[in-house]
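Query structure, 233 tokens:
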């Protein structure tokens, strides 16, 4: 298999607190992917090292084999598949699939690609325990997204609306993706808010809020039409 830069980013793993990439026998990297791993100081390890000798449990126990009802939380730490963070990752998978279906409609493909890249980054940030970083989307930072989503009449000449079947497939798909983003955000609250109500990963929760806001803005743009859209989309 030839790993592209995107494929490498999707398959970075955590080993003893360090980011690593496992490369199988006969597999290769594009020059761009290899340069990325070198620049980010990510070790390239043989795939034979991917399977640990033992697995740890959050409570401190160990297992010699991975049971079917458990999966990796990070590294070689296992949790049940209904663990809140695993549920969250499942909701992210659903959101990714909805964004891809949106792209098939042929509208806002560039904007949707940016959103999809951010969503995919969230899984890596969770698994590798890294910060999300910048959440600017489609040229709008957090404050711009708030203004555009709260006051669409001012920016697009289009007030808030409830979608109908007569709005067409583009708006219907965007709305479904927006709903998936909201579900992922709620799953994130279950996964990343402690018993005192304090978020342990506010960056992930904020990023998902940005995603749902941007999808709503795209719905507004689609409803307004190109002749009333200040961005010309």
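Result returned for the query:
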């Amino acid at each position: 298999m030839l790993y592209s830069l995107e494929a490498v980013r999707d398959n970075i793993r955590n080993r003893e607190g360090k980011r690593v990439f496992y490369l199988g026998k006969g597999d290769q990297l594009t020059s761009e992917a290899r340069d990325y791993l070198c620049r980010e100081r990510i070790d390239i390890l043989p795939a034979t090292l991917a399977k640990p000798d033992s697995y740890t449990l959050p409570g401190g126990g160990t297992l010699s084999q991975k049971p079917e009802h458990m999966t990796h939380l990070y590294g070689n730490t296992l949790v049940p598949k209904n663990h809140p963070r695993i549920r969250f990752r499942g909701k992210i998978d659903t959101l990714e699939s909805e964004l891809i279906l949106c792209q098939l409609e042929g509208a806002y493909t560039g904007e949707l690609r940016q959103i999809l890249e951010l969503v995919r980054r969230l899984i890596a940030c969770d698994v590798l325990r890294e910060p999300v970083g910048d959440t600017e989307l489609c040229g709008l930072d957090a404050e711009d997204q708030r203004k555009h989503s709260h006051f669409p009449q001012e920016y697009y000449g289009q007030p808030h609306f409830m979608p109908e079947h007569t709005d067409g497939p583009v708006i219907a798909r965007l709305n479904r993706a927006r709903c998936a983003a909201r579900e992922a955000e709620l799953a994130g609250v279950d996964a990343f808010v402690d018993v005192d109500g304090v978020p342990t990963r506010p960056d992930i929760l904020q990023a998902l809020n940005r995603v749902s806001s941007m999808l709503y803005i795209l719905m507004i743009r689609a409803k307004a039409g190109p002749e009333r859209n200040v961005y010309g989309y």
